[in-house]
Amino acid sequence: PDSWNRNECIAAFPATFEQEGNAGLLDMLNDMQTEVDGRPYPHHLDFQGKPVRSNAPPNERIREMMAGRTKLCLYSKEMQSSTIIHLPTKPPHIRLLTHFYSFVFFESWSQSTWASRLVRDHLRYSDEIMCAAARVIDAIRQFSYSRENPHGIYHSLHVRRKKFYPDNQHTLSSEEVLQSLSDIEAGSTIFIASDDLDGDFFQPLQEEYNLRFLSDYKDLLRGLNPNYFGMIEQIVAARSDSFHGTFYSSFSAYINRLRGYYSLHGITNGDSNDGVLQNSFYMPAQYHDENRIYKAVQKPFYAREFPIAWRDINNGIDQMEDGKAEDLGMVGDIE
Question: Of 235, 263, 267, which Cα lies nearest the Cα of 251?
Answer without folding.
Answer: 235
